Request: fold
Amino acid sequence: MIEIFRDVKVDWLGKRKLYLAISGSVMLLGLISLVVKHGFRYGVDFRGGTIVTVRFQQKPDIEKIRQLLRENGAPDSQPQELAGRNDVLIEFQGAKEEDASAGRSIIINALNKGFQGKFEVLSATSIGPKVGDDLKRQAVLATLYALLGMLIYIAFRFPTAPQPGWWLLRLMDFLIYGTAAVFAAFHDTLLTLGLFSIFNREINLTVIAALLTLVGYSMNDTIVVFDRVRENLRLRRRDSLETVMNASINQTLSRTILTSGLTFLTVVALFIFGGEIINHFAFAMVVGIVVGTYSSIAIAAPLVLIYTNIRQAALAPAGAPTRPVVAAKMTKGPRPAKVR
Amino acid sequence: MNKRVRTRFLIVLGVTVLSIALFAGFPPSVAKMKEKVHLGLDLRGGTHLVLQVDDAIRAETDQAIEGLRQQLQRGNVIFRQLIRTQNNIFQAVGVDPAKDSDFRRILNERFTEWDLISTAGEVPNTYTMRLKPAQEREYRDQSVDQAINTIRNRIDQLGVGETVIQKQGGPGQNEILVQLPGVDDPARVKNIMQSTALLELKLVDSGPFPSAAAAAQNYSGIVPANLEVLPSVERGLPSGGEGSFYVVQRVASISGRDLKGAYPSRDENGRPAVSFNLNADGAQRFGRVTEENIGKMLAIVLDGRIQSAPRINGRITDSGIITGGATGFAPQAAQDLSLVLRSGALPASIKYLDEEVVGPTLGADSIRAGLTAAIVALISVVVFMLVYYRLSGVNATIAMILNLIILFGALAYFGAALTLPGIAGVILTIGVGIDSNVLIFERIREELRAGKTAVSAVVTSFSRVFITLVDTHLAALISAVCLFLFGTGPVKGFAVTLVIGLVSNMFTAVFVSRTLFEWVLNRKQRAETALSI
Reply:
């Protein structure tokens, strides 16, 4: 039997300050990059404009293409060679407002002046700026609704007994697992977006789809860990929350690494074989799986612990010696299965 | 085989056969599969357009202004001018203060669709009217529906199968989505749609002139605001053919909205011409306009260009004829024009917001790339599972392949098209499938390590992991449904495969995999049997 991990006993939660430092600095780097580069590099889907992909019969001369475009009404366009065949991708910002498709004819007419009959148009996309704005808004909305939905779902599946205190705090007590999971997913999105800015990759509609998938994945990992925490809290009533969490993460570690590794494998297959269009998607997923796995261990569980510790400390009588934190009691949740 | 396992096997077999029948027919064949699994535009090549119906409301406002002008003149209410200030708002400036009650009465009786929103303005006695929002919405919807019908009629003439022509976006967006699989020349499509532009009949004020400048000269350089200069595409005119211009009323007497039908016919000289007739409302107005303007010329304007400008010889009500000038239409041209008029009574003009063309080469490339990626992913995962979990890996492999079969069956059943993001969703489904299997197998190993027998380890693991799987799948389902509801185009295609994949994975990873385990354990009939895991 091949086993990667067996009886791992790592004190994951003891290093929570380190995680905060890592996440914080990567996010800060992303933020700095965003400020320096004046925001994200949006794809044509969001900015509005035209992308034409052309396949030439012979290896094309990019300089000549650039010159043709410059001289024929598309001065700000950027031809860019694609790996593999003799494909060239041309982006064009012009031809705004009225007719989204005008950009396509400008580019094809320009190419016809130098390469008549020697190329084939593989695809052409023109998007008006209004559509771009709509898409951006819809993408953000879809993400927010998805996060809200999951917060509510997890809160109900992992409820904790509210401690005495202000009603908002009591509500927070109830929602803490859901909030932590959503925060972890949010953290992943922010981190990945930051990395997109640092690596100067453009954000288009498929990247948004990847980010949303990523949110799902991160949730998936977090829920697996939380689920084990829930089960263990019921079995090990004497242990502190920190001990239970560490044990749960260790118990699910081989699963976490295996799944992430295998999913990583499928996504790498996409990245390598999926072709030009899927490429941005695959990049987001490759980054996202690493970040998502990290956050389910380093962000979600520690957040619950930090919150519970603060609450417990505030509730303890002043001057009393601090005792190990007792696990937050689960009020509801499925019973352990009967063994037949 | 005990009864429980046998029932479970039958269910699994039934689902498998049904799914295969759904996407490949019964008996299965590649030909039927090609017919049943729809490919999206990005995979088979085609044109995707998003259009916006533009100024339906503006035209409506212009009509109202014209109507009010006539009512006021008839009621002897003196006013300085009527102007459209926004698409849905117009002003009556400087109305005779003594006739305030008359003005309000006309508004209340004849213009119930309009709200009087203000009586203030730079000029005293200025009234501002706004189209009621409900009415505006109705006009918008109407014009979008009409445009959709028109475009569908047109596109059907192209003989392209599986076209999609539908409303898109929220209320007030006026957007129309057009998808034409297999058409990679948008210029041709647009030619057909562009000619579906606006038909208007406008009274000629003066003309023809050889140039636009000459036309303006006639008004000492500045054409008044209620008039405009339009080019004519009439042939055989004394002024020299193509370069002729007319000065016409800016507001159309009759527009595409009022047209009932058009058909090729012959003019009085037996040359090809196009006859048209109007609906009741249009006929009434047309009758009045022609009666009041006998002897003047009426320009038939299509898409901003004058087709012909016949002289009005008498009162015309519900029908008219478009002649092709001195030489007449070519028979084909008369055919085409009547088709354009008949199907193309577009109430408003259209704007192209978004255009996407995928050539057939790229589509084929994408299919190849997507399939390669999926197969490489599947094989590497299967190899790993077999090496790492030995015989139980077979279990996982069967579950995974069955998952894909169900996924394709469901896609075919719902008639959902497989797109490139959809293939990404399929690959992700493979990922989710692995996760479920790994979760279960790791748990079984753990229980075995804790000293449980194989049978009890399998039972405990499945019931424990079931809870986790419900949680992870439901959470993922929530996000996939959000993607489907709030996403557009590619995001939606991705969400569809993901939703189906999640549901079918719940079945294969839990039910199918467990059945296989129980079958193996049952065959050996011994509680202490070792599992190959």
In short: Chain B touches chain A through 79 residues (CB under 8 Å). Residues 236-241 of chain B have pLDDT under 50 and may be disordered. Chain B has three domains: 3-45+359-524, 56-134, 199-354.
